[in-house]
Amino acid sequence: MRFEQLIQKVDQAEDVLEASERRVAAQLGGLRDTWREAWTPGRIVIAGLVAGFVVGRAEPLRTVAKGGGLMQLITMVSGLFAGGSAQVAAEGAEQAAASAEAVAGTSGPATATLTTEDEDAATLARAEATVQAARVAVVDPVEP
Fold it and tell me: Tell me: the pLDDT tens digits for 63-90?
């Protein structure tokens, strides 16, 4: 093959490539126009809702996949329940102590041994409530 023939083939290939580039550019312009016309406000809202749903479903899974995310969530929830349980136990102890003191106050001087027993019962109730609150907060944090 002669050198002039090779140059002619290269020129033909360049012409074909330029024609293909023009055709692709025209099709891309048509696609761009069609794409813009297709995005009506209703479709934009629907696309936003779908994207939000997908992100909302993927985010918790991503957090769990990071490692420790699930444990963090469980720890936070158990701490919430443990705090509530400890508060309930402390209020129960205060009520028991108040009722024991009320009984001790109404018994009078004739029953001095009952007053001591009532004070012991109130002290025991406070100690028991404290132990219960500590158990709930430390040992069994998920129990309400």
Answer: 666 666 666 767 767 766 666 666 666 6
How many alpha carbons fall within 13 Å on the CB side of residue 140? Answer: 9
Determine the Cα–Cα distance for residues 39 and 50; give it in Å rounded to an integer. Answer: 15
Grouping H, G, I as helix, E, B as strand and the rest as coil, residue 77 is helix
Q: How many CB atoms lie within 10 A of CB 122?
A: 20
State both tokens at 97: 């102590």
| Pair of tokens at residue 91 | 């209020």
Instruction: Write the single-letter amino acid at 103.
Output: V
List, in sequence order, every beta strand (DSSP E) within 1-144.
none
Residue type, 54: V
Q: Report CA 62 to chain centroid distance, whole Å.
A: 11
Tell if the pTM clears 0.90, that is, is over it. Answer: no
Report yes or no: 143 and 84 within 8 Å, Cβ to Cβ.
no
Asked if residues 90 and 133 have their Cβ atoms less than 8 Å apart, the reply is yes
Residue type, position 28, single letter: L
C-alpha–C-alpha distance, residues 136 and 79, integer Å? 10
Element housing 56 (H / E): helix 41-65
3-state DSSP assignment of residue 71: helix
